[in-house]
């Protein structure tokens, strides 16, 4: 999109000359002056793009083949070429390169004195203007397909061909063009497109315009709204999950109570149903450790004790076992009692009795 207004700063070739200015729009040159120091500020200047026009006599334009290089690499290569072709020290030169054009293998290279760039920008900034771009005047004439063209623009006469652009100077122009004819052209509204997208901007590298960091409040507001939306969505999801989990828990509780009441109809709620089922289960397996666990422990104690036989067993609902064992000697009886105690049983025992040459003992034991 082409900007509607431009404020042009006409940089002088002489350091002691004032900076001229022009306001340009689609209607042409709206106003102009010879000294930027006394410019009348207008409201439209705030929206205008500030373009500084560098004198054609102070900027050398060349083209060189720099295919496929990034801007920084192309600028470094251009500096090497400038060092070979210039008598001035490379440290005193500022090199700028144009965009890589798809229809050309070469790149535009603009060379200007570092002192000139420093002076131009310092003077403009001292007057309250920081140019958005610095464009060589020699590139304000569009490149012809063939031959040479000449145009007067903002007080400068420019000669342009397909691969050259320079200020029209007696002797120099004839030396470059030879006997080739030069067609005079008039510059019109095509300047707007050049100002909007210059073929080369001298504000590169060390002279690139610094961008002041500013808070984008519209973006901040948008991010806050997005964050609030995410937080609200997260809260709603959490509330839905809580409601769902609560509903599922109530359903499971009802199903549990219904299933329990099919076994213990007297239960009126889940807790009473669980208590009644525990009591019934205890009745089935017996108290204490239950019949199976108690019997397994008893048989283990019998196997571990030699010369001991189980003569009688009675298991009570409370988990206690009344057992009668016979052994070859009192020592075997004592070993059996120790084995039962080692497995956690406690209880009472009668005095051993002798019968048929064996010792008989009655015990009542239970796991706590």
TrEMBL record:
Domain GspL cytoplasmic actin-ATPase-like: 7-161
Subcellular location: Cell inner membrane
Transmembrane segments: 219-243
Assigned keywords, A-Z: Cell inner membrane, Cell membrane, Membrane, Protein transport, Transmembrane, Transmembrane helix, Transport
Topological type in the membrane: Single-pass membrane protein
Principal subcellular localization: membrane
Xref: InterPro entries: ATPase_NBD (IPR043129), GspL_cyto_dom (IPR024230), GspL_pp_dom (IPR025691), T2SS_protein-GspL (IPR007812)
Cross-referenced Pfam families: GspL_C, T2SSL
Biological process terms in GO annotation: protein secretion by the type II secretion system
Listed GO CC annotations: Gram-negative-bacterium-type cell wall; plasma membrane; type II protein secretion system complex
Domain named GspL periplasmic: residues: 222-365
Family: Belongs to the GSP L family.
UniProt xrefs under NCBIfam families: typeII_sec_gspL
Name of the protein in question: General secretion pathway protein L
């Amino acid at each position: 999109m082409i900007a509607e207004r431009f404020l042009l700063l006409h940089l002088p070739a002489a350091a002691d000359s004032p900076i001229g200015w022009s306001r340009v729009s689609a209607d042409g040159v709206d106003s102009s002056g010879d000294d930027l120091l006394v410019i009348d500020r207008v409201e439209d200047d705030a929206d205008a793009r500030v373009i500084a026009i560098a004198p054609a006599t102070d900027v050398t334009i060349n083209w060189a083949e720099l295919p496929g290089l990034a801007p920084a690499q192309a600028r470094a290569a251009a500096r090497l070429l400038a060092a070979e072709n210039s008598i001035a020290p490379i440290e005193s030169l500022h090199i700028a390169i144009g965009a890589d054009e798809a229809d050309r293998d070469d790149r535009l290279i603009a060379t200007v004195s570092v002192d000139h760039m420093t002076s131009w920008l310092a003077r403009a900034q001292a007057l309250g203007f920081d140019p958005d771009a610095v464009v060589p005047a020699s590139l304000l004439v569009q490149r012809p397909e063939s031959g040479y063209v000449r145009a007067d623009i903002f007080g400068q006469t420019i000669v342009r061909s397909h691969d050259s652009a320079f200020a029209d100077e007696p002797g120099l122009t004839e030396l470059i063009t030879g006997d080739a004819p030069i067609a005079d052209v008039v510059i019109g509204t095509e300047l707007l497109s050049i100002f909007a997208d210059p073929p080369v901007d001298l504000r590169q590298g060390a002279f690139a315009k610094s961008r002041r960091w500013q808070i984008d409040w519209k973006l901040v507001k948008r991010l806050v709204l997005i964050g609030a939306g995410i937080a609200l969505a997260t809260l709603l999801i959490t509330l839905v999950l809580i409601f769902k989990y609560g509903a599922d828990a109530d359903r499971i509780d009802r199903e549990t109570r219904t299933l329990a009441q099919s076994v213990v109809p007297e239960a009126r709620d889940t807790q009473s149903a669980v208590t009644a089922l525990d009591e019934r289960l205890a009745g089935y397996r017996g108290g204490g450790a239950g019949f199976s666990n108690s019997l397994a422990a008893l048989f283990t104690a019998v196997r571990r004790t030699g010369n001991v036989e189980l003569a009688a067993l009675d298991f009570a609902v409370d988990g206690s076992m009344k057992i009668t064992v016979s052994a070859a000697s009192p020592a075997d009886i004592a070993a059996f009692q120790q084995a039962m105690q080692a497995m956690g049983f406690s209880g009472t025992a009668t005095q051993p009795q002798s019968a048929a040459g064996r010792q008989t003992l009655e015990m009542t034991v239970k796991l706590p």
